[in-house]
Amino acid sequence: MSDVEIVSLIAGVGVLALMVELLRRRQLKEKYAFLWLAVALVVAVLAVAPALLDTVAGWLDVADPVNLLLFVGLLVLLSVCVHLSWECSRLEDETRSLAEEVALLRNQVERLDPPA
Question: How many beta carbons lie within 10 A of that of residue 12, not counting itself?
């Protein structure tokens, strides 16, 4: 194993361990951890079997396997960004709705029991 493969394997196993620990402490939701667990497993597999990337690049007719790796990494990051933007928008709508509901309830309470 080359130095790059060893570092990749350590990185993959490290990310895997970190995700498991965050899940265990309930600091990360399962729906987010699944993506990072998958990324860590792919990194670990590619570190153990780097020829696999060459094989897949050959199937897809990509000249340099590193280009394929960077492209897939870019797609993963873009997917994460889109998903987080969607979650942020959804939570913003929910927060606005809850703030309106609290304001209406506060108004009802003040009408029933006006401050002295």
Answer: 20
Angstrom distance (rounded) from CA 84 to CA 109 = 37
Tell whether 56 is covered by a domain: no
Tokens 């003040």 belong to: 110
Q: What's the whole-model pTM score?
A: 0.70
Rounded Cα gap, residues 1 and 5, in angstroms: 6
Same domain flag for 67 and 114? yes
pLDDT tens digits, 41-81:
888 888 888 889 899 999 999 999 889 889 998 998 999 89
C-alpha radius of gyration, the chain, whole number: 23
- At residue 64, the 3 state secondary structure works out as coil
Residue 13 confidence (pLDDT) above 90 = no
What span, in angstroms and rounded, lies between the C-alpha atoms of 54 and 59? 9
Domain co-membership, 43 together with 68: no
Cα separation, 106 vs 21, in Å, equals 41
Residues 41 and 79 in one domain: no
